[in-house]
Every structure is written in C-alpha cells, then in structure tokens.
Amino acid sequence: MNAQKYSAILQTQKLCVGYTHAKERIVIAQDIECEIFEGEMLCLLGPNGSGKSTLIRTIAGLQAPLAGSIRIHGEEIAQKTAGELSKNMSVVLTDSISIPNTTVWDVVSLGRYPHTNWLGLLREIDTKIIAESIEKVGLAHYAHRNIGMLSDGEKQRAMIAKALAQDTDFIVLDEPTAHLDLPNRIAIMKLLRDLAHSTRKSILLSTHELDLALQVADRIWLMQKNAPMLCGMPEDLVLNGSFQRIFSTDACNFDVNTGFFKITYPVQHTVSLHGEQPFVLWTTRALYKYGIAVREKNPEIPHICIEQGTWCVEYKNQHTQCRSIFELLSALRFS
Amino acid sequence: MKNSWLYILLFAFALPCVFAADVVFGSVHIPLRELWCFVRGQECNTIYSSIIENIRIPRALVALLTGLALPVSGLCMQTFFRNPLAGPDILGVSTGASLGVALFSLAGGVGGIVATQNLSVLGGLGSVASAAAGAMLIMGLILVVAPKMYDTSTLLIVGIMFGSITSAVVSVLQYLSNPQEIQQFLMWTFGSFSGIRMAHIGIMASIILPALVGVFALQKSLNALLLGENYARGLGVSIGQLRFMILLLSSVLAAVITAFTGPIGFVGMAIPHIARMIFRTANHQILIPASALIGANLVLVCDLFSQLPGFESSLPINVVTSIVCAPVVIFVIFSSRTFQRS
Predict the structure, then answer these.
(1) DSSP 8-class letter at B314
(2) CATH number reported for the structural domain that contains residue A287 in this entry
(3) Which residues pair with A170 in a beta bridge?
C-alpha cells in the first residue's frame, strides 16, 4: 500500500501520554509521532506496561494528553467537545456491558446518539443503518436477544456494531480480543480487517495477539518501554529486527523463519530424526519441549526413524519400537 | 414500544380514580356525590367540602407529588451509579434533612434552652426549612466532591459515608435530648402527608414539576449512560455536565419531598424496578413517565391503606410504604438474573 496516496485521518505530534496524580505528572510514553490513513487497519502492540491502553484512551478523548497534539481531520482533539468528537470517532472499550431488559438492537441503536434529536427518536435512515450494522457483524439472528444472554464474543460484535452505527470514519478499539477464545479472536480480527477494507473506515486497535496482528494488520504501531514508538508494515518490523528486540525475553523467542513465538528451552540432548510429515514436525516439537534438539545424523547420538506410525530408536546397536510420542520419550530417557 | 405508551396511558387514567378514592375514604367517609358537587363548585354540604378542601385534597396532592418525584429520583440514581439498589436517599440527602430537623427539634434541649416554639412537627414551616437546609448542605457537599471523583462507585461510597456521619450526629443529638423532644423528632421520621397547607404545596409543585421535566430532558443522555461513562462520552455526552444535572435534579426531588413529608421509605428505590418489570425496557423515555405514574398511583394507594375506614387515627405513611415496597425489592432480588450467582 502506498501511504502517499491516502490522506491521514488522524495525526499525532510530539504526543506525550500519561497521568496526573496529585499534581505530579507520570509520563507513560512520549514523543509519539504517527498517523492513521483512510481505510487502514492498524494494530497497536507493545509489552505490558508500555502504555497501549493509555495511548488508546488518550486518542479516544477519554483522558487528556500531557503534551503534544492529536489532530483528527486536521483539527485538535482537545479543542473539540464530546459531541463534535463523537461524529469523527467511535470507541469500543473493555468496560463490561450488562443492562437488564436491553436487546442487541437497543445497544446498537445507542450508536445513533450523535445523529438523533433530543428525544432520541430513530428516523427511517437510522433504523436502516442499525439493521445494516448488526448484519455486518453477523448478529442479525440475535438482534432481539437480550444483551446479557450473549457470549463474550457476541457482545464484542454488538459493541462493534454500535461503533459502525455511529457512522464515523475512524473506530478505535481497546483490546477487542481480550477474554475471547482463539476462534473468536481470529473471527473478530478478520471482521475488523474486512470492515476497514470494505467500508474505507480507519480502524485502530490495541492487542496482545502478536501472531494475529502480523497476519491482519496493514500497519503496526509498536510501543516499547522508555523508547519512541515504531510504526510500519508488520513484515518490515520483523525484517529489521524490531519485533525480536521488543518481544524476545529469556523465556521466549520470536522465530524469524516461521513467524511464530517460541518458548526457549535449554538444549540438553541431541538426536537425529527421519520420516514423513506431519510426524517429523510434531515429534520435533515434542522433543523440543523436553530440551532435545534434532541434529544431522551422527553415530554418537540416537537416531529416530518414523515409519507408518511407529517410532524406531537406534542407539549403540539397540533398537526400540514405540507406538506413540509418549512411549518414544520414555524410551529416550537419557539417564 | 407502542404497547408501552398504551400502558402509560392506562396508569395515567388510573391516577384520577385513585386520587378520588384517596379523597373519599378516611376516618370520615365522604359520599362521591359530595366530591362531585365540590369539584363542580356547586353549593354543597359545608362540613364535607371543608374536609375535602382543607384536609383530603392537600393530603392527596402531597401523596401525588411524592409518588411522582421519589421514583424518578431513584431511577436517576440507579442509572447514574449503575447500581440497582441505589435510591434517592443513597447520597445521604434524606439523612441530611433528618439532621436539619433533629437540630431544629432537639438542639434547643441540648443547649439547655427551653424550646419555645410549639413544634407542630407535621406542619411547622420551621422543621420544613431546617430539613431543606440539611438536605441542601449534604447535596452541596456531594456536588462539590463529585467532579473530583474518578468514578461513580467512589462517589457512592462517599455519599454513604456522608449519610453515616449525619445519622451519627443525629443519634448524638437524640442521646442528649429529653424524651419529649425525641418523641417529636420520631414523629417526623414516621413521615406524613397531612397538615401541609395549599400554599406550601404550591411551593413543592413549583420545584418538583420543573425538576421532573428537567429529568425527562436528560432521558437520551441517561440511555447512553447505561453503557457506562466512557462509552457515553464516546457517544458525545458531556459527562461533567450530565453528572451535575443528575445529582442536582435527583437531590432536589428527594430533598423537597423529605423536607415536607419526612422520610418516605423504599418508594424511590422499589418503583423503578416495578416499572422495569412491567415495561421490560431500560429506555428512560419510557421508564421516567412510567416510574412517575406508577409511583403516584402506588403512593396514593399506600395513603389509602394508612387511613383505612374504621380506624380513628392513621398509620404512619413511612411504615406503610416500607411494608408495601420492601417485598418488591426482595422479589426483584430473587427474580433478577443479575443478582443471582451465575
């Protein structure tokens, strides 16, 4: 995607976010320089405590920046009233929603708040937009179900529908995949990406899902502790080593070759392995967990040969047959 | 939605009937004919018309205003604090009123001064003024403290603490007073709709009716507030302003009523739940008029119960409303999913 072709919807300059507590400024992150373009899906990543939520809350107008500026369509957010801002940006937060006697339709219709008159009466166009929003997030058959009866994933969809009904060109979401199981996490991320590309809305979300973010984000904002935020295509950030540097710890490593995070286990033993996929892959993974690395064939180390679902271990002229990885690991006891 | 307005109309039509019943029944039964005669302004039995004019109608009007005001105040508090057990007295406004009255009726004795005022607890404007002053004091404190509070639950705790401190002060005053003064104060805590003059009812109505209109003007923002303050702000609600208006209006409603009638238990907390049960909605556009109308009907009925024919004296209204409404609260707790373990 050529960034130059699109106009920036939101721009920050020398932004400094944090809290004021007892007249003392607590800076969480500073010198944030970034922009969001039209129709783009942006993921905000960073380790715990790097200030993701604070930045999201500041951009959403829920707390004031300590310094610097955030402009939406060229206008300073701090200068806008809540009413004006609600026509530019809609928010989806982690706050729990539990309202008795309220259906999905009722919640989504609250998204029309900035557009209706003082009585809040829904015109025909409002009803149409609400129905479309519910349809887009795939809740059409739950429209008249009580919000309390939905699962967490469905609730999150309802809140996204509320944001769509608000009809703004920028949506900001704070950890929309928190509390969801893996299929729902993927579904929500995919939904948001599709929405960004089909409706040309810009979507900014914070998340801990590194793998998912790499797969769905057009661009990534990468926050780090005590250093400026990085922006870029996820793939560029991987190739220039930023990803590894920020997220790799003693216990875990980002594998540039597979694109996955791997838990680091100290290698204590080595074996060699021969056979067909997927047996080789899953055997390697199991061995890795127990500190056994796979190397080139070598008479000094045990050789494992996988054939038709059986594992043969050859070591110092001894042969052992195993029918599962569990048995294999027992056989391999290196004592 | 259309059904809801039908129900609201039903409650609105029931209101004049219940009102008439409250006027007709009492220690002296008034024939309907006489009431009709009075309403049409014809010459009629002077004893009856004097009872109607000076006792029954003022009393029913106060019951009506109480029934309109307290549930709406309670509804606002429940939405504002996102707490179904909140009510008009949750912020200590009623206890503030009781502090005012306690100071007025008991402090004389504490200071060793012979209480010269003939404290007609029920009608004395002195106790009304002191109740209003006490309620305003607590309300003012809450309004000053509110903008400094990060979220509503801390504000709720502060409100409850204000209430505790105030009732402790009231207890101290009671402890130091002589039995006769305590009895006068106790009479006030029973609550009463009678003995309020038409001129004072005019004052009540001129504050309560605009405040009710004011609350209805907030209905759209109150609906947004159901999602919580952060979401409401994202929808364009200016939270600071809304907080101030909700606290001001619901405190004013509770303060005015408590000042004139004494504490009226449970009405403000229970009736919004009855409205939610009947109308199955969380929409304030429906719930505000529904709570007000159900409240007015129910309080008039409670007043009817308190002066059942055949009894010379009437039961204290605070007792009757508590007996009628407290079971409703229990029912709500047992029937509501949100209260039960999931």
Answers:
(1) P
(2) 3.30.160.150
(3) A89, A202
- Domain containing A108 equals 3-249
Question: Hey, what long-range contacts does B106-114 have (CB within 8 A, 24 or more apart)?
Answer: B106/B173, B106/B174, B106/B176, B106/B177, B106/B181, B106/B182, B106/B185, B107/B173, B108/B181, B109/B176, B109/B177, B109/B178, B109/B181, B110/B173, B110/B176, B110/B177
Structural domain tally of chain A?
2
Q: Which of residues 292-331 of B touch A (CB under 8 A)?
A: none
Q: Chain A within 8 Å of B27 (Cβ-Cβ)? A: no
In angstroms, the first-to-last Cα distance of chain B is 30
Same domain, A199 and A315: no
A277 and A170 assigned to the same domain? no
Cβ under 8 Å to A: B residues 49-78: none
Same domain, A230 and A293: no
- pLDDT per 10-residue tile (average), chain A, 335 residues: 63 88 83 90 89 90 89 88 91 87 93 90 92 92 90 91 93 90 89 91 91 90 86 89 81 77 84 88 89 86 88 86 89 69
Whether B118 has a pLDDT exceeding 50, the answer reads no
CA distance to A69, A127, B8, B27, B118, per residue, from B124 (Å): 60, 55, 37, 23, 9
| Cβ–Cβ below 8 Å for A101 and B276 | yes
Please report, for chain B, the start and end positions of each structural domain, with discontinuous segments joined by +: 2-335
In this structure, the strands spanning A269-274 and A303-307 are parallel
Where do the H-state alpha helices sit in B177-266? 179-190, 198-217, 219-225, 229-234, 239-261
**Tell me, what's the ipTM?**
0.83
A158: CATH:
3.40.50.300
Which residue, A249, A282, A297, sits at the end of a domain? A249
Domain-located, residue A220: yes
Q: Say what the pLDDT of residue A184 is.
A: 87
> Is A64 an interface residue toward B (CB < 8 Å)?
no
Q: What's the DSSP call for residue A45?
A: E
Residue whose token pair is 């014809």 = B42
One domain, residues A201 and A325: no
Separation between Cα atoms, residue B299 and residue A125, nearest integer Å: 42
Checking if the pLDDT of B45 tops 80, the result is: no
Residue for token pair 């209006």: B249
Q: Are residues A178 and A245 in the same domain?
A: yes
Cβ–Cβ contact B196 with A under 8 A? no
Same domain, A39 and A74: yes
Q: What is the largest CA-CA distance in chain A?
A: 87
pLDDT category at B116 given cuts 50, 70, 90 is very low
Q: What angle do CA B55, B58, B61 make, to 5 degrees?
A: 140
3-state secondary structure A46-58: CCCCCCHHHHHHH
What is the C-alpha to C-alpha distance for residues A70 and A32, in angstroms, rounded to an integer? 10
For residue A91, the chain B residues in CB contact (below 8 A) are 230-231, 234
The overall pTM is greater than 0.90: no
Per CATH, which fold does B2-335 belong to? ABC transporter involved in vitamin B12 uptake, BtuC (1.10.3470)
pLDDT of residue B336: 63
Same domain for A161 and A110? yes
